[in-house]
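Section handout 9: paired folding examples.
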Amino acid sequence: MRRTGPDDGLPVVCLSGGSGGLVPGDWGGSIELLVSRLAPRHPDVRFHEVRYRVKSWNRLELCVEDARAALDAATDPRGRGTLLIGFSMGGAVAIGAAGHPSVTAVVGLAPWIPDRMSVESLRGRRLAVVQGSLDGWLPGIPGITPASSRRGYERVREAGIPATYELIQGALHPIALRGPGGRLIPMPRAGVWTDRVAAQIDLFRAAEGQPEAAD
């Protein structure tokens, strides 16, 4: 895990996507881009980016274990809650880890929410789903269709758990891709993604009693 922000900042734990193969974890480009843009806008927040031991949806239980360990390490000693942000497979990881006592809210970005996955871990929390309208599977690039994330969202609502759903018109699945030399390449609507996540962080900050940031 790597951290950005002040030691006493309000904790936000960020979970990247994965793949079908049993490959070592790395730093997800989409989450990395978001953190780089969000940290200056939220100087009172401490972002924690998780690198899974194995970033595979076929070993989802290991990724959830990693997320819970990160939450243990990120828990605020002052008793303030933690926001979980999960991109793609990270959405399922976030839901799996949401029962951690520090978690108060979950944000799923184009989240994978398997039909077989229980959403009971979200009880007592709130879920916000943000989804790209043009998301979907492409050759060599996994994706989450709006219909898929909407189905998961509806299951959460049917369980009586507070949830919201936002669609970003024209957005694909990745928020950023990693180019030559590790350079991050923002995808279309990356700025809109950043603004939508920033709005969710503001809601979390308000719920935790944080004053509004100065303009």
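Moving on to protein 2 of 2.
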Amino acid sequence: MSVTVKLDDLTFGYGAEPILSHTTLELLSGEAVVIAGPNGSGKSTLLKLCVGLLTPWSGRISVLGLPPTDPAARRRIGYAPQRIRGATSLPVSVGEVVASGLVPQKSLFSRMTAEDWRRVAGALEAVDLTDLSKECMFELSGGQQQRAVLARALVSDPPLILLDEPTTGIDQRFRPVIAQELRARAERGRTVVVVSHDPEDFHAVIDRVIDMADDRVRELTHEEVHTMLGRRS
């Protein structure tokens, strides 16, 4: 497996306080990884660094062999943030929101093709939103909006998928469907990284759990994962 994300002695923080300190980490193609840890430990920050929304204080980060700010890298990342931003009065349909995930891969002024709409339909089906594709995005429930944002991150089938609390607000019955969809992506060689307060949602489909606490990043052993989930090894 190749290295998709590499952090080398990376330090970043807000104000004068580091939230990540001399962090080294590699994420590989074909694996599904959960990033766990307490509030304020830097989980969302780590994803934002990988997307290029934040710049490290020191150290290096590469994504798909490139700096995360490189447009060629950004076009190959599917990112779903924790909070949905946008004007609630914007008359945009669910299908259009998902289709916007293809924009970075298309040339300027190019039109959506039949193949593009097929991919949109597939992403909507993966999160069980097919019947709501023509509905106004911001008239949906919070959980339905979250599923649409997840479909947007998946629609281009990118090699790196970064999801920040993707099951927040989503009905319990949809969570196993989403977890299995992410497992299928990993099995096709994609790197799937999920920030989650509740790894229980993904325990059956993940390869690794990375714990973030006290300015450090550490891979949990299988025994520690079982303890975290309240299970016996």
